[in-house]
Amino acid sequence: MSVLIDTPIWSLALCRKSAKLGARGRSLVAEWKDLVSSGIRESEAFVRLREHLAAFDDVSAVREDHERGAEFCNACRTRRVTPTANDMTICALAARHDRAILTTDRDFARYATLLPIRLRDVRRAG
Length: 126
Prior knowledge:
three-stranded parallel beta sheet; 6 helices; 2 domains; 6% strand
């Protein structure tokens, strides 16, 4: 299954010491490691990270993604959920590419009840 990984997951995996993570954080990082089989181990240098990420397919937003994101935003607002433009673009990309979203952002759970998106199940969640 293809997955879009939201920024909080990259932050957990690359910016925080594992000793400072709780059980949920460790579960999410373990899930990330499963998904990122190339094994990124260090995050100090942006250049090194960029080299690692170059191995992954880019998912670029096109006009239709921004338009669909705006439609998603309107759909959420009619249900009294106020999303961010970035979140709605991620949802539109995930929908167009039929990818699940891996995130710690709880807003996406609300979006998933209103929009045609899927969230990645974290099997090791604690």
